[in-house]
């Protein structure tokens, strides 16, 4: 039964480091996605304001 124990101890650090890397990358990618969505929303609002201002100026 102890024949598999060295293999588990040898692979455990690699698996743990892999999981930590995965969680960090997941957080970075989600953060980037949320930031891009917020920036797109802000950009659309600014374009809407600009278009309204230009259309009001053209009407006068």
Summarize the entry for a quick read.
The protein is mainly alpha-helical.
Q: Can you walk me through this structure?
A:
With 60 residues, the protein is an all-alpha fold. The protein contains 1 helix and no strands. The mean pLDDT is 92.
Which regions contain 5 or more consecutive residues with pLDDT less than 50? none
Q: What's the gyration radius in Å?
A: 26 Å
- What structural category do the secondary elements indicate? mainly alpha
Mean pLDDT: 92
Q: Tell me about the largest β-sheet.
A: none
Globally, the shape reads rod-shaped
Order of helices and strands: H
Helical content (DSSP H or I, runs of 4+): over 70%
Question: What is the number of strand segments?
Answer: 0
Q: Per DSSP, what share of the residues sits in E-state strands of 2 or more residues?
A: under 5%
| SS element count, helices | 1
What's the end-to-end separation, in Å? Answer: 88 Å
Secondary structure: elements and pairs:
Blueprint lengths: L4 H55 L1
Main attributes of the structure:
60 residues; mainly alpha
């Amino acid at each position: 039964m102890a024949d598999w124990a060295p293999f588990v101890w040898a692979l455990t650090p690699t698996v743990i480091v892999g999981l930590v890397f995965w969680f960090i990358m997941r957080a970075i990618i989600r953060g980037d996605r949320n930031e891009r969505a917020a920036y797109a929303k802000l950009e659309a609002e600014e374009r809407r304001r600009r278009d309204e201002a230009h259309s009001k100026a053209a009407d006068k």
